């Protein structure tokens, strides 16, 4: 490590939103729900580095970006820009930060003010920061993003540009202040594929020419591999894996990354490969509590050492437990499939089992599940929850530490946390207590 | 902008009415308070149109044409002041509430709701008893109440524009709130604001006529509204239709053309091609 602080360091950044509580909640003084959009995210961006944050929609990547540019207030943690924490910024420092950190949004169609000409749009940032030579700079930057000749574009309005041209103007607007950092939120996802390639190539060249660092946010692994050196995989507000791009694509470690990588299409009809099965959708990020956030969808969730169980069967139990704890078992629906009365507990338990389970269980496992289901139909869900927890509790129900497995490769998964040899980076449990 | 034929047509009518407002008194063939007599020395009471009096006479023997021409001025003034007040107050409150949000928004919008609850005519009557019956005060009262619709709609528009990425980019680049309002919000809600100006002009004229008709505005300023009221009061409304129909039609035409012009203008500036607007851009 050199003495120079990294360009941008994000330390245990948190952004929670309070869910709108109604009048009744206010009168009863209920605690509002917290949406944990960004939870304990740590990243480091060095100079001239391009890193990516990927994850599916709703994982909090856009919230992360909006928090980084100061449009959301942080709930916890801090952002350190060139050694100075953002939380202690004076207004002069904010101005400097806003000049040096620029953003390119996803939607080129609404990123430009429809009432302004391209020239006005590009001059705005210069005017805000009182920079002269505006005409010259605007011309230059337009040439850089390959909108040639600039005269042709200066007086146009966004409605007279194509999507690709608009996004080039957005990039030009971000570059015109010669920033240190560009935050790009899926900048090409709304363009068509041929334009995507051209714009991406241009972006890559520009960040190299201008010596800009970039945080590139996307859900699309194929564009990420083109533009970024390091990939951070985000799931429900947390970074689950960080690794150099080429290596993460070749041998993903975290089960979620594995699923993402195996979902990248390969344009070869004869190519056959094993896909990682990932069912369902992410949970709502509301009051998530402790534990690995991917555990309910994880294909390789870890059973306790003490029991012997097939992986698939164990997954079913974990999914069922999750539903049970969230009180989302479709009891009525299952009962409707039963003809006759509701009197026979055993029948009802069997019906639920048939609906939610496909795998056979044996011995003690089977007995515990039976007991739990009976407790459930007897309207004692707490008993059922407790029974199942006692028998099937997984190590995945505690938050995994982020461990540095190899050089520059960090994973937050119990599969890789062997506790002895690896360096410990941070411990989410302790950070969570505030 | 005036390439569009319909808009150009309504614009011409509006210009004609403004022209009447400025030069009407000079064009009037007679003084508005001159009583005309026929050959026998009798007052020409509610005479039908003739060569000497193309629009007929009133029951007091006044020339209707002269009164219409002179009455254009207060009518145009009513439209401009009333519409202007509605636009200014409505846009200011709407944009402030929509952009700033939070407690400011709550206070401003609850106040708007309160004004919505005020019945217009009774309130105008009450307010005028305090401010005194007068031509100007009757317009001010209209402006003080009718901004409410504009405020609500412009707040909604502002909230919509505020959500666009270009506003977020401007904020992230360090633009101050006033700068964002002037540079981004205002131009983008302008079409709606202009529409409300047109509506406001129309409303103000009609309402002022209504107030005069009820007798709570100055009856001695001979606006078109006042003419209709006089015709009604005299009892000659039915037997001398030329007296009330002309000012009535003129009010209708003014309101219609302001309204249509506003709509046309809104369409034109929201589709603004490079051609028409590029020349006006300061380099």
- The portion of residues forming beta strands of chain A comes to 15-25%
Gyration radius of chain B, in Å: 23 Å
Query: What best-fitting shape of chain A do the alpha-carbon axes yield?
Result: elongated
Shape of chain B: elongated
Give the N-to-C terminal Cα separation of chain A: 30 Å
End-to-end distance of chain B, in Å? 21 Å
Which class do the helix and strand fractions of chain B yield? Answer: mainly alpha
CATH arch. level architecture of the largest domain in chain A: 3-Layer(aba) Sandwich
* Secondary structure: helix percent of chain B: over 70%
- Uncertain spans of chain A: 420-434
SSE order of chain B: HHHHHHHHHH
Q: Helix proportion of residues of chain A, in percent?
A: 25-40%
H/E element sequence of chain A: EHEEHEEHEHHHHEHEHEEHHHHHHHEEEH
Query: How many β-strands of chain A, per DSSP?
Result: 13
Give the averaged pLDDT of chain B, no decimals. 81
The CATH class of the domain at 73-270 in chain B turns out to be: Mainly Alpha
Q: Point out poorly predicted stretches of chain B.
A: 272-283
What is the domain tally of chain A?
A: 2
Determine the mean pLDDT of chain A: 81
């Amino acid at each position: 490590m050199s003495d120079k602080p990294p360009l941008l360091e994000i330390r245990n950044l948190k952004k929670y939103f309070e869910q709108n509580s109604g009048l009744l909640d206010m009168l009863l003084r209920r605690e509002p729900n917290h949406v944990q959009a960004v939870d304990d995210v740590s990243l480091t961006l060095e100079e001239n580095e391009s890193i990516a944050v990927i994850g599916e929609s709703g994982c909090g990547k856009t919230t992360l970006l909006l928090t980084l540019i100061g449009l959301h207030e942080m709930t916890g943690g801090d952002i350190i820009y060139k050694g100075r924490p953002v939380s202690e910024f004076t207004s002069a420092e904010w101005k400097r930060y806003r000049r040096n950190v620029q953003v390119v949004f996803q939607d080129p169609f609404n990123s430009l003010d429809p009432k302004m000409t391209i020239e006005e749009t590009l001059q705005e940032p210069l005017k805000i920061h009182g920079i002269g030579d505006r005409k010259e700079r605007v011309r230059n930057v337009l040439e850089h993003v390959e909108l040639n000749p600039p005269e042709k574009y200066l007086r146009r309005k966004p409605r007279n540009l194509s999507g690709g041209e608009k996004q080039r103007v957005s990039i030009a607007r971000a570059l015109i202040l010669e920033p240190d950092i560009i935050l790009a939120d899926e900048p090409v996802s709304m363009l068509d594929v041929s334009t995507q390639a051209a714009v991406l190539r241009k972006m890559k060249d520009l960040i190299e020419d201008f010596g800009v660092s970039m945080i590139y946010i996307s859900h699309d692994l194929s564009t990420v591999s083109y533009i970024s050196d390091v990939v951070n995989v985000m799931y429900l507000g947390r970074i689950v894996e960080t690794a150099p791009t080429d290596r993460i694509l070749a041998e993903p470690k975290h089960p979620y990354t594995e699923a993402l990588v195996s979902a990248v299409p390969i344009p070869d009809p004869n190519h056959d490969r094993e896909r990682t099965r990932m069912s369902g959708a992410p949970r709502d990020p509301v009051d998530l509590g402790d534990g690995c956030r991917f555990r309910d969808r994880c294909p390789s969730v870890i059973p306790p050492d003490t029991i012997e169980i097939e992986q698939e069967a164990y997954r079913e139990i974990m999914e069922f437990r999750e539903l049970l704890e969230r009180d989302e078992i479709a009891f009525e629906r299952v009962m409707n499939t039963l003809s006759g009365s509701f009197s026979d507990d055993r029948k009802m338990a069997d019906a639920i089992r048939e609906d939610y389970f496909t795998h056979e269980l044996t011995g003690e496992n089977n007995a515990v599940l039976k007991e739990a289901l009976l407790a459930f139909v007897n309207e004692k869900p707490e008993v059922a929850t407790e029974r199942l927890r006692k028998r099937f509790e997984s190590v995945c129900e505690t938050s995994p530490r982020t461990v540095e497995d190899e050089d520059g490769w960090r994973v937050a998964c119990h599969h890789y946390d062997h506790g002895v040899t690896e360096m410990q980076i941070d411990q989410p449990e302790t950070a969570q207590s505030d | 902008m005036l390439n569009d034929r319909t808009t150009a047509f309504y614009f011409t009518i509006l210009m004609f009415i403004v022209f009447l407002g400025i030069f009407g008194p000079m064009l009037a063939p007679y003084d508005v308070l001159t009583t005309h007599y026929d050959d026998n020395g009798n007052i020409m009471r509610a005479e039908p149109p003739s060569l000497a009096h193309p629009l007929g006479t009133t029951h007091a023997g006044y020339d209707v044409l002269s009164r219409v021409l002179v009455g254009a001025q207060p009518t145009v003034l009513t439209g401009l002041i009333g519409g202007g007040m509605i636009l200014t107050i409505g846009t200011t409150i709407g944009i402030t509430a929509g952009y700033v949000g939070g407690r400011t928004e709550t206070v401003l919008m609850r106040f708007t709701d309160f004004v919505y609850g005020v019945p217009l005519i009774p309130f105008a009557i009450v307010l005028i008893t305090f401010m005194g019956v007068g031509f100007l005060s009757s317009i001010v009262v209209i402006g003080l109440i009718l901004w409410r619709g504009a405020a609500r709609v412009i707040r909604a528009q502002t909230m919509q524009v505020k959500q666009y990425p270009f506003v977020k980019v401007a904020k992230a680049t360090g633009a101050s709130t006033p700068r964002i309002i002037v540079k981004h919000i205002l131009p983008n809600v302008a079409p709606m604001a202009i529409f409300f100006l047109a509506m406001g002009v129309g409303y103000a004229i009609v309402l002022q006529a209504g107030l005069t008709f009820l007798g709570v505005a100055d009856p001695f300023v001979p606006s078109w509204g006042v003419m209709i009221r006089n015709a009604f009061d005299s009892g000659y409304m039915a037997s001398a239709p030329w007296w009330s129909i002309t000012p009535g039609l003129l009010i209708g035409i003014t309101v219609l053309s302001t309204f249509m012009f506003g709509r046309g203008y809104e369409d034109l500036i929201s589709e603004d091609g490079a051609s028409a607007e590029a020349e006006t851009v300061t380099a």
